[in-house]
Write a structure and sequence with these properties.
64 residues; mainly alpha; 3 helices; DUF2304 domain-containing protein
Length: 64
Amino acid sequence: MAISISVVLLLLVLAVIFVRNCSLKISHALVCTTLGFYLSCTSMAPTIHSGLTATADLVSSLRP
């Protein structure tokens, strides 16, 4: 749960930065958000979730 909240906050911050720099239009952000909601309802959602979890575990296990 903590990882998904962190990822959501990171993506939100990036989206705000892109919108303020005019690199990301509001319409593009809405399309990406809609795509995310539709992907979460598909059969690919568990695969995407497990891939993101594995990537987060790999990154958290790295030592500088």
